[in-house]
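User: structure tokens for this one?
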Amino acid sequence: MKRFLTIIFVLTIASVNLFAQEKQHSIEITTGYPSVLHNLEYPWAYSTVEMTWQGQTYKEHYQPGINIGYTYQWRKRWELNTMINLHLTIMDIYQYPLLPGADGSDTSGPDPSNQYDWDATPTTTRDTDLFGALCLSFRYKWIVRDSFSIYSALGTGISIGFPIPVPYVAPIGIKFGKGKVYGIAEANLSAATTFGMVGVGIRL
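Assistant:
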């Protein structure tokens, strides 16, 4: 009986230690380019046709997306990732003057842009927009080693400001590093990026 209790005690301690090792909390900061938020939300904010009718054109200066995420590993191969995506875009808007005799009120004609002098030098103003989204995804680790793991992720989110759903799909990603700080890189389609995402994580 004593030997049996000793075995149970040892197995319990081992199970608790293993369970504790599986559970991990970490913070991840990543960046990607270009942002899906830009592609989804800009058609809502800036219509090229409407701007042309008002004598305007624009030039965009893309900025990478910044992502701040919290990752919770509750099993050896499974992680839950919540993320805030931020994307800053800077745009120059060019306003062309009206032609002599035009007052800009003719918006019902076949081409209201004919009221503007497109050969003149436009005035330029700079517009800055910050887009954001909240995302939730699940990661499954296909390969787990001491110094790295390879995973896939799937999830969804919603943009802040515009009620547009955004995807989170990572067919393949890698986490590498055994210490408190680790690296992360993945092929990614999300609010943050349409190609790839790289960054660092800190195990808490």
